[in-house]
Specification:
Belongs to the ketopantoate reductase family. This protein is an alpha/beta fold. It is built from 12 helices and 10 strands.
Length: about 300
């Protein structure tokens, strides 16, 4: 299978590395020093499940050098999806599958606004990983999972084939009964912990240990549930309880990637997380005061990072 990894950071680098290690025909889009290091030394993946090196990597920063892929895995940030989709139009065919792994609740809608609907899959991943250095990816916690499906939840032939390819590549792949419910379950977690983490600048575990901050986390999650339900997503009280249990199980060193971006002064997914909830709340007539405070408090830093 010809696979294009569009964005070779912590997510794209890890999953692309595993797929290449398993013998798939993988190409990587990378930039600058990261690209140079990959071309010269291969892609190094440090992992709690075992380190490995992918040699002779096909990596470039030019889409014009890529053959039409069977699958594109988007390893970018949510705010980069629209631009990526516009560029991908030049190389994909009607049979190419485009799989977004970004955190966020509306990535599929963004893609469908630019690409034909039949090209788009819904998906996300569960992984703690980062680009540690040029040419080096560090997967530092938990067993990775890739969750995906058709937009109508059909167990199609292409989805089942992809599941087999993924499962044979050293990570767990899941095709759930309701992909949009699962997307919102992941989104609720990452949006709940990221913004407050960016403000407090401490780990998820430390926030949860503090009664006051735990209460803020819970209020953030409940506002997200209200928006999800108003949009027709089956995100019920059991999902919220599981959300809080999962947050409580995070380690004392665990941080979300968006929190790390905020703390480092890099452009983040703030608009796609707390900002998205605030905007949907205004659209749907639902109050979201906790998400709005977090969003407004971080927005000046976000604007400065983007400038």
């Amino acid at each position: 299978m010809k696979i294009l990894i569009y964005g070779t950071g912590g997510v794209g680098g890890y999953f692309g590395g595993r797929l290449a290690q398993a013998g798939q025909d993988v190409s990587f889009i990378a930039r600058n020093e990261h690209l140079k290091a990959i071309k010269e030394n291969g892609l190094t993946v440090k992992s709690v499940n075992g380190d490995f090196l992918v040699k002779d990597v096909k990596a470039t920063d030019k889409l014009s050098e890529i053959e039409t892929p069977d699958l594109v895995i988007l390893g970018l940030k949510s705010w980069q999806i629209t631009d990526a989709a516009s560029k991908l139009k030049s190389i994909i065919s009607e049979n190419t599958m485009v799989l977004p792994l970004q955190n966020g609740a509306d990535n599929m809608e963004k893609l469908q606004g630019i690409l034909p609907k039949q090209n788009v899959l819904a998906g996300f991943c569960k992984i703690y990983s980062k680009k540690e250095a040029p040419g080096v990816i560090n997967h530092f916690q938990f067993d990775p999972e890739l969750i995906f499906g058709e937009l109508d939840n059909e167990k199609s032939e292409r989805v089942l084939k992809l599941k087999q390819v993924f499962n044979n590549s050293g990570f767990k792949a899941i095709v759930p009964g309701d992909i949009f419910r699962e997307v919102w379950r992941k989104f609720a977690f990452i949006a709940t912990v990221s913004g407050l983490g960016g403000l407090t600048r401490v780990s998820i575990g430390k926030m949860w240990q503090d009664d006051y901050l735990q209460d803020i986390l819970k209020k953030t999650g409940l506002e997200i549930q209200a928006i999800a339900q108003a949009k027709g997503i089956n995100f019920d009280d059991e999902d919220v309880e599981q959300l809080f249990q999962f947050i409580g199980k995070q380690g004392l060193t665990a941080t979300a990637s968006t929190q790390r971006d905020i703390m480092a002064g890099r452009p983040s997914e703030l608009e796609n997380f707390n900002g998205y909830i605030v905007k949907q709340g205004k659209k749907l007539g639902i109050e979201t005061p906790v998400n709005e405070f977090i969003y407004r408090a971080l927005l000046p830093m976000e604007k400065e990072a983007r400038n």
